[in-house]
TrEMBL record:
This is Uncharacterized protein.
Length: 395
């Protein structure tokens, strides 16, 4: 999207097309005509709402769902009278559609058609409409551990977001009205539409989580590109936010408050607790691994070979060692099932800040044997793979 799909020749060799920006009247007329055509192909056709007050438009965006019959992008191309299309097999197909300019000359507009599923078209319509609306709202809610993307609204687990941002997220909802209500804004106002940018900004200011000081800092830390390239975002930041009355910090909820409110509102507590436990266990595993490496690393040897041996022994501990009645012992056979292997976090002391002294001593005393048994296992596994490959070649 953005009107740049036809700047270069297509992968199929089709030539580039010069795309013109559309005046408000050209945009409105072409959008209406294309929408009428798309309704003959799809059950739902949603033109995305642009930010109000734009002087011109770079493209026209549609979300569609529920094809009436089987067809190809070529069929759509013919139906909308496009001279070219671009498609990489994903959900968005770009069309270069001719239109008559206000001076009577023929120009070309980029029309983007994004195919959606029935369960997410409402959310995508909400999330992608009105220009930078969600860039602004996403900046407001970021500090509270909330993230919105094309899949819905998510809660980030604080203990996991630094190590694995995506892995820390818990799904909350893709219901636009429920999300807006949770954030303290009026859904009816959004549905009615916005005539001006100030209307949008006033609506955003209803958000119960907005903290003007934090918004400015978050925008500067994480949205520098938006400030430079997105005029709607920049105007909200530089003109609208400074005019808002400052909120008393005591009246704003904490991240923990919002966490529990979200879990209750969206019924996500069970998934959160399961994922939270897994993240805490993962964090302990990382800590225990680091402590084991520190304890085993010879202070005078930082060579690649020493690091290789350390990593080998760490793998060996998981596969060859088991904990029996608080004591470590070597297995007679390796445990290759990851779920049943020894977890290094089991070697931590009760404070979970240091390795258990006895476990650390046992590992150091058995370092060479641990290295030896894992090396032998790897050698035998390699020979077995060679033998299987040799048999397949003969067959």
């Amino acid at each position: 999207m953005g009107g740049h799909a036809f700047e270069h020749d297509g992968l199929d060799g089709s030539p580039a097309v010069k795309i013109s920006r559309l005046s408000p009247s050209e945009y409105s007329n072409l959008k209406s005509n294309v929408a009428d055509t798309l309704t003959t192909f799809f059950e739902q056709v949603r033109p995305l709402q642009e930010a109000p007050g734009k002087a011109d438009y770079g493209d026209i965006d549609f979300l569609v769902e529920g094809p009436h019959r089987a067809f190809t992008p070529e069929h759509l191309k013919i139906a909308v009278s496009a001279t070219a299309l671009r498609s990489n097999g994903g959900p968005i197909t770009n069309f270069a559609v001719p239109f008559t300019g206000e001076n009577g000359d023929t120009k070309y507009a980029q029309v983007d058609v994004q195919t959606c599923h029935k369960e997410n078209i409402d959310w995508l319509t909400f999330h992608q409409s009105y220009g930078d609306l969600w860039q602004i709202l996403g900046t407001i809610i970021r500090r509270y551990g909330l993230t919105a993307n094309d899949k819905g609204l998510f809660l980030r687990i604080e203990e996991g977001e630094e190590r694995n941002w995506q892995g820390s997220m818990v799904f909350l909802s893709r219901d636009p009205a429920a999300v807006v209500t949770f954030l303290g804004m009026d859904w009816g106002t959004f549905e009615a539409g916005f005539a001006t940018l100030d209307n949008i900004f006033d609506w955003l200011a209803q958000c119960r989580l907005i903290d003007t000081d934090i918004f400015v800092r978050t925008a500067q830390d994480h949205r520098e590109r938006n400030i430079k390239t997105r005029p709607m975002f920049r105007r909200f930041l530089e003109e609208f936010v400074p005019a808002l009355p400052a909120k008393d910090a005591d009246t704003l909820p904490s991240r923990s408050n919002v966490l529990h409110q979200a879990l209750e509102s969206f019924g996500a507590r069970s998934e959160y607790e399961e994922k939270h436990r897994a993240i805490l266990d993962g964090n302990l595993e990382v800590k225990a691994t680091d402590l084991a490496l520190q304890a085993l690393r010879p202070s005078e040897d930082v060579s690649k070979n020493a690091t290789k041996n350390l990593n080998l022994v760490i793998r060996s501990i998981k596969r060859w060692v088991r904990l029996v009645s608080e004591h470590l012992e070597l297995r007679t056979q390796p445990e290759m099932d990851i779920d049943r292997q020894l977890k290094l976090r089991e070697l931590l002391d009760r404070d979970q800040e240091t390795l258990n002294e006895g476990h650390e001593r046992w590992i150091k005393d058995n370092f060479e044997e641990l290295k030896s048994v894992e090396k032998q296992r790897m050698k035998e596994a390699k020979e077995a793979r060679k033998e299987v490959g040799s048999r397949m070649d003969h067959d």
